[in-house]
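Sample A.
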Amino acid sequence: MNGKSSRPPRSLTDIRTLAGKSQDGVQRGYATYFEMGALELERLRRSQEREAALRRVGEIERRIAEIDAEMAQLQGAVAADSERRAEVESALPSAALRPTRSRRRGGASNGAEGAAPVIRADSGRAQTGEPGEGGPRRGLRIRY
């Protein structure tokens, strides 16, 4: 023989298997076990995710409780400070509550440094001339 054949060469499409040929499901038993194993692995992953999420929720609730406790403590301090200021203002004569000018002339300072705080009757707060300290603050300011 000289090596030439009248048959065409075989390829992958010529290989015959039984995959997908069974109609009765007898050969499908392994696929059922495979699906059961895959579902069990997914169940394990989901339960781990749930535990991590519950742990995170617990941490968040604990932090919220800490924040509430700190807020209550600060509000108590503000209330006590307000009562103390009211007592001091009631003890001062009315002439001391009049607004006064405390402006220095000359020198390199702009009047804000080294100036004594001036108590004004309208706000009840010490005015130092610094920006951001002009009046009563409302709410809580958080800077990030």
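Sample B, a different protein:
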Amino acid sequence: MSGLKRTSLRDFHAAHGARLVDFAGWEMPVQYRSILEEHKAVRRAAGLFDVSHMGEVDVRGPEAGKFLNRLVTNDVTKLYPGRVLYSPMCYPSGGVVDDLLVYQRGPDDYFLCITRVTSTRTSRGFGSRLPASPSRLRIAVPTMASSPCKVPWPLPSCSR
């Protein structure tokens, strides 16, 4: 699988027996042993998901919520700090650009997790939805200096 992009965890995955596949230009693990065995391991302990192939976008400012509501099909006004929303982002004329996660970190402060392979197409889709006063909105695409992993939460053994 030469020519594919690799996350910094790729060698770990290969050394531990992962079956690696081409996932939108990235060499990614799809499975280690059996799906059932992996499911049970995650239920007993925890699982990590390598998200370093995902794109990040910060959206902040007094117009952030309104902008995001024009961007995605789900209702961003239902969010409150600490909550996340899964939604497709559609072209103004219809058809799905990408699916993404919208996290609300605080009032007027959001984080988007997008598929990196579609990040250029996704960010191009922002333009037609910018508010009349774009100075009240800040959109930033942080550089990927690290290789983040996410742990599914809540862990099955944790009590609420």
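Observation for Sample B: The first helix runs from residue 10 to 15.
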